[in-house]
Amino acid sequence: xxxxxxxxxxxxxxxxxxxxxxxxxxxxxxxxxxxxxxxxxxxxxxxxxxxxxxxxxxxxxxxxxxxxxxxxxxxxxxxxxxxxxxxxxxxxxxxxxxxxxxxxxxxxxxxxxxxxxxxxxxxxxxxxxxxxxxxxxxxxxxxxxxxxxxxxxxxxxxxxxxxxxxxxxxxxxxxxxxxxxxxxxxxxxxxxxxxxxxxxxxxxxxxxxxxxxxxxxxxxxxxxxxxxxxxxxxxxxxxxxxxxxxxxxxxxxxxxxxxxxxxxxxxxxxxxxxxxxxxxxxxxxxxxxxxxxxxxxxxxxxxxxxxxxxxxxxxxxxxxxxxxxxxxxxxxxxxxxxxxxxxxxxxxxxxxxxxxxxxxxxxxxxxxxxxxxxx
Length: 375
Hints:
By secondary structure, this protein is of the alpha+beta class. It has a single domain, classed as DD-peptidase/beta-lactamase superfamily (Beta-lactamase). It is built from 11 helices and 10 strands. The strands form 3 sheets. A 6-stranded antiparallel sheet has the order 2-1-10-9-8-7, sandwiched between helices. Helix 1 (about 1-35) packs antiparallel against helix 11 (about 360-375), helix 2 packs parallel to helix 5 and helix 4 packs across helix 5. The radius of gyration is 20 Å and the shape is globular. The two termini are about 15 Å apart.
């Protein structure tokens, strides 16, 4: 298997060296079509392997009105990619340290849900989106009591919401799961996700992922609306704030290169920069399917892709192993990781600028379909 993979990678790298200009031209054409249709004003793209970057391109400008070009320095609002890069990684590190168990019940940390329909929900249920919680909640519905922070009000409100179905009955992708998960992470660790991840994950990886940007960082940040530059786009996450915790569903900002380093770490089964950040078996556990028999395939935090053009028809109903995983963000961000070929794609845009009317899905489909043909 190792010999076959080595031969495959050598052929793939040789192909890219020989055909790099034609590949680049076609990729440029696909991305340019999105900009010409005003799907997004700018984008960053990296295609890489577990060994090296194969293609790195930057397109357009920060907004339609300004002349600041998107470059290697551009920082993007990652939106829901924060779920896997931030919250999921902290949960897995705490699990690796023996400080929590994935089968721990939420009621262990929040007695409020004892003797309710939510009593059996576990940490794992939150990670794979089978808790039964609704997908999101409007900020207007949150009521902040006296002596209560915004973060506490959000968590208490979520925990009191009725479930849409019984736990583990079906997959319902929900941002609310990750608010609760982040709150549990912080209770267990005794510190915020921001400080924990910087100390245990981002720092050792040598990458910069931030919830709170400096004034200089904000200038490098690609705006998501005319009024939001360097502030999280998600309304509930923005309301939640950073003073009394970290919103687990969104809030991280980073560059395409740093997100590429994260993907490389995943492909190397937790190893990066000469260090084993996560045990290989825990990375494998994250990427396995934990929702067999349900309506969607989910790993721990990760989405398991199984439909063309984001994947290929090589899945089996009884197969726990995942071939292609990833996640997207509402702001127009995407990570796509082929575990079999050891290839990843990072595609970052601000498709929500200046509003949320455009859909980036057609551009993503064209891009991944083309790259799958090459691989």
